[in-house]
Design a protein that fits this description.
Blueprint lengths: L2 E5 L6 E5 L4 E4 L12 H23 L3 E13 L8 E13 L2 H15 L1 H6 L4 E8 L2 E2 L1
C-alpha cells in the first residue's frame, strides 16, 4: 500500500493520492479558508470508513436490508508534549431498514474486535467505543 502527497498551494493544502488515482485533500483547518480536512479528521474518517465497510459487508452477507447507513465519530484529544493525539474515539452507527438489531450489534462488535485494521492500529493507545442504533432505537 502506498500513497503520494503533493503540496498544491503555497500554504498547507495537500492532495493525497492512492495507487488507483483516488485522492483526498488535507489542509491546516486552523487557517481561514481551508479547502481540505485536517489530518486528525482524516483519522476519524478512516475509522468510520473501515468499520462502516465491515458492518455493511457483514449485514449484507446476512441478507439484512439496509436502507440507510450513517456513522458519527467523535474523538477526544489530550496534550502530550507538543502533540495532541487521540485519547478516545466513539463511533455511533445509525442504521435504518429491515435489520435484526442483534445482528447489527454483532456486526459492530466483530468490526472492532476482529476486522477493522484502522481501529486495531489505533487500539494500543486509543480507547475506541461504539453504539448501534437501528431505526432510531439504541441497541
Amino acid at each position: 500500500m502506498k500513497i503520494t502527497l503533493n503540496r498544491i498551494n503555497d500554504d498547507f493544502l495537500f492532495e493525497c493520492t492512492n495507487s488507483q488515482g483516488n485522492s483526498i485533500l488535507l489542509d491546516n483547518t486552523s487557517q481561514p479558508g481551508a479547502k481540505g480536512v485536517s489530518p486528525m479528521e482524516s483519522v476519524l474518517m478512516a475509522v468510520a470508513g473501515c468499520s462502516g465497510i465491515d458492518v455493511v459487508s457483514i449485514l449484507k452477507k446476512q441478507r439484512q436490508d439496509i436502507k440507510n447507513f450513517q456513522a458519527e465519530v467523535e474523538g477526544e484529544r489530550v496534550q502530550v508534549d507538543d502533540a495532541k493525539p487521540f485519547k478516545s474515539i466513539k463511533v455511533k452507527f445509525l442504521l435504518e431498514g429491515e435489520i435484526d438489531p442483534k445482528k447489527a450489534l454483532k456486526a459492530a462488535e466483530l468490526s472492532f474486535e476482529k476486522y477493522c485494521s484502522v481501529s486495531k492500529t489505533l487500539e494500543p493507545n486509543v480507547e475506541i467505543g461504539y453504539e448501534v442504533f437501528v431505526n432510531g432505537e439504541k441497541i
